UniProtKB/TrEMBL annotation:
Gene3D superfamilies: P-loop containing nucleotide triphosphate hydrolases (3.40.50.300)
Alphabetized SUPFAM superfamilies for the sequence: P-loop containing nucleoside triphosphate hydrolases (SSF52540)
Pfam family, one: MipZ
Protein name (database record): AAA family ATPase
InterPro entries cross-referenced by the UniProt entry: DNA_Partitioning_ATPase, MipZ, P-loop_NTPase
Amino acid sequence: MAHIIVVGNEKGGSGKSTTSMHIATALVRMGHSIGTLDLDLRQRSLGRYIDNRRAYAEAEGLTLPIPEYADLPEIEQSSLQDGENIFDRRLSMAVSGLHGDKDFILIDCPGSHTRLSQVAHSLADTLVTPLNDSFVDFDLLARIDPADGSIGSPSVYSAMVWNARQIRARAGLPPIDWIVARNRVGAQAMHNKKKMAEALEKLSRRIGFRAVQGFSERVIFRELFPRGLTLLDLRDVGVEKLNISNVAARQELRDLITALRLPGVTPDF
């Protein structure tokens, strides 16, 4: 069975699709077979990212490693069993179609609460939650007292992950390895940055996730998407000497892949 990686966060703009594409492409470059799904059926950012990559490689005559991508199959309502949810069936069919010859399946979830996202989280062997370094985003994980910084009750997204963990436990499946990746962390030692780190450390012990460094705010991420490129492709497209920012970004990706602790994966880039 393929190891399933789910990239999820109920808030848009946290860098889910950028994170998904970089993880998937890095795994392909390291020789692993991977299939990808995008559960944001309307916006389809990961799907478009991979479409852009395929089109750019063809137009430029490049051979770039491209993760396999599958859309959810269309099915007839009449084919469902009594009480069966159509989205459950579509996701199950898509995952089953990729399982046969894949080491990993990566599922990119929408930035909203949907049935598809709920079910996908229950399938996760590894859950990656990109989180902007802001207490606005932290609020999806837990409430925090503005007066003394104490952490209150877990919030809506944490509750969904807890529910997914319970479903897996009842099914006798291994627990989810949950990683929260801090994105857009400022370079300076700001007060907010320190407070976020402290709050995440406290919450991680309470609800069971590992907080790791994600991607810093960099212009290059906005420039890569239209061509479907990642940080690992720069030399393939003629960038002979990486600038300091690009080198630092590649190190962040290497550190993230290492932190995921995926079976059989050792970063070699």
